[in-house]
Specification:
376 residues; alpha/beta; 11 strands; globular; 7-stranded mixed sheet
Length: 376
């Protein structure tokens, strides 16, 4: 696949900035980056974390750690500041302002559209149906039927989707990859993939160079504060994105923390958390299913539940007044009176249950009592 034909000519023609740490090894006497010497700072913190030194733009130990975690070759990994940076880099490299387009399937993660607007790219929307299901046939037609004037460069899909929580089945993903061919990149956002039993699509990267995958430590690894993610793609795509990436995108403390989070014991810690979240989600779904003010429920496969209620903004305000924050999606097209509820720790979910019982006036029903006993 010739990615040069998809990338902006300006990016291909530019000479990328070459940082001191990106062009020379960080050993010996380092007098090539205008850094302050730690020896003159007289504080062990500087030496422990090497705060006086610029970190490697793509630290080898973290790249290899994430490559092993996501079961891909290291040359297919670009470490980013969360998934948001991956989205932004793709927009800047492949979309010419006022000329190129991206495709999304709303309701979905809002940053695809925001990043497109910042870049000046046109957004082609293939909305989900009334049941918030992905219309794969229509999406396939939109991709394959785009004429030369559409200049469709990026197709954004999320599995599980946010905020509906549904998965994109493998057979349908393969259809859409075939539709994209060598004309567009299919960007699959797998921010929530660890919360379900479905495998990652990373195993398809070798056979489908048009596939790009976004991963993050923010969700199932419990490390949103790190702002550390990864973009998995063909090495040629990684090279193009590296041309416009900030010289030193990752801080030394964030690199150390990311290695610690994913290090020894990380998998076991994650497994314990995921098991608890599944239990709490099942209890919440049971609680919501018994409420007459819940008009429709989308449990999904991620760490949240989407519900259409009788008064979405009212319920959000009611919970907020009781110290519980849930997300109002009422202003999103197709999601009138919908709220998204993230799954928290048992005590947090009990606080939510109490607020919901107060809203419904059914504080004494059997479901609520069961939840209280399960979360004393």
């Amino acid at each position: 696949m010739k990615f040069e034909a998809l990338a902006r000519p300006e990016i291909l023609a530019m000479r990328p900035y070459a940082s001191a740490r990106g062009t020379a090894a960080a050993d010996g006497v380092l007098l090539n980056a205008n850094e302050a010497p730690a020896a003159l700072l007289d504080d062990p913190a500087w030496s422990t974390l090497a705060l006086n030194r610029y970190p490697a733009p793509q630290p080898d130990d973290l790249v290899r750690r994430l490559a092993a975690l996501y079961q891909v070759a290291p040359e297919r990994v670009l470490v980013t500041r969360g998934s948001d940076e991956g989205i932004d880099l793709l927009m800047r490299v492949f979309c010419r302002p006022g000329t190129d387009a991206v495709l999304e399937c709303p309701p979905c993660f809002g940053m695809y559209r925001v990043a497109a607007a910042i870049q000046g790219a046109r957004v082609i929307a293939v909305p989900r149906d009334d049941g918030l299901r992905l219309d794969v046939a229509e999406l396939e037609r939109a991709i394959a039927g785009a004429d030369d004037d559409a200049n469709l460069k990026l197709v954004f899909l999320t599995s599980p989707n946010n905020p509906t929580g549904d998965l994109l089945p493998r057979r349908e993903l393969l259809r859409l990859l075939a539709a994209c061919g060598d004309r567009s990149l299919l960007v699959l956002d797998e921010a929530y993939i660890e919360f379900c039993d479905a495998p990652s699509a990373a195993e398809l990267l070798e056979d489908f160079p048009q596939l790009v995958i976004l991963r993050t430590l923010s969700k199932a690894w419990g490390a949103a504060g790190l702002r550390c993610g990864a973009l998995l793609a063909d090495p040629a795509v990684i090279e193009l994105l590296g041309r416009v990436m900030a010289p030193y995108p990752l801080t030394a403390p964030a690199i150390a923390a990311a290695l610690a989070v994913t290090g020894p014991g990380g998998r076991a810690r994650q497994s314990r958390m995921l098991a608890t979240l599944r239990e709490e989600k099942d209890r919440l779904v049971s609680e919501l299913s018994g409420r007459d003010w819940v008009e429709r429920l989308w449990p999904g496969e991620a760490n949240f539940v989407l519900a259409r209620v009788d008064d979405g903004p009212g319920l959000v305000a009611h919970c907020a007044a009781r110290g519980v924050r849930i997300r109002d999606f009422s202003s999103t097209p197709g999601l009138a009176n919908c709220v998204r509820i993230s799954i928290g720790a048992p005590d947090e979910m009990q606080a939510l249950v109490t607020a919901l019982a107060d809203w419904s006036g059914q504080a004494g029903d059997s479901t609520t009592e069961t939840l209280k006993k399960a979360n004393p």
